[in-house]
Amino acid sequence: MRTNLFIIFLVFLSTNILAEEKCSEGMIEYIYKKKKVKKKLNFCFDKDKRDKYIYSTNCKGLKCKPLLIPEKRPVNISHYKSSIGSPGFKVCRELGGSPQIIKYKFDKKWNQSSRCIFNDSTFASNNLLLKLWKGLIIQ
């Protein structure tokens, strides 16, 4: 009985994480070397009751290496206590990424956000990192 309830719970969690995932072409805008950059880019979009998330297409289904198995990789941001900054930026740095403030357009509307860039082709919204690492951030 307990095993069945646990399996049902896991299925519920996994369906809740990617309830609306869509991948297609959108626009990203950011500042690089004091200049505004606007690019067409293929990426994935997802949302839940609280927030919206974007991530690179190679992370579709949250299957890219930087997003895998957060429960085995807790993040320690306690050494940032004296610094100002968003928790998402701190988590991004601890995971080996570079945070960036962006605007993105998926469908028709521009949205303000931030992303963590792991390499030339892999990125994820900082708020997605906070969602995935919830309860695994050492402050």
Q: Which descriptor suits the 3D outline?
A: globular
Pattern of helices and strands: HEEEEHEEEHE
Low-confidence segments, given as residue ranges, are 4-16
Give the end-to-end Cα distance, rounded to a whole number of Å. 37 Å
Number of strands: 8
Strand adjacency order, main sheet? 3-2-1-5-6-7
Classify the secondary structure makeup into a structural class. alpha+beta
Describe this structure in words.
- The protein has helices at 2-17, 87-94, 126-132; strands at 22-32, 35-47, 52-56, 75-76, 98-106, 109-119, 122-125, 137-138.
- The protein has 139 residues and is an alpha+beta fold.
- It has one domain (2-138).
- It has a 6-stranded antiparallel beta sheet with strand order 3-2-1-5-6-7.
- A hairpin with a 4-residue loop joins strand 2 (35-47) and strand 3.
- Helix 2 packs across helix 3 (126-132).
- Mean pLDDT is 87; it is low at 4-16.
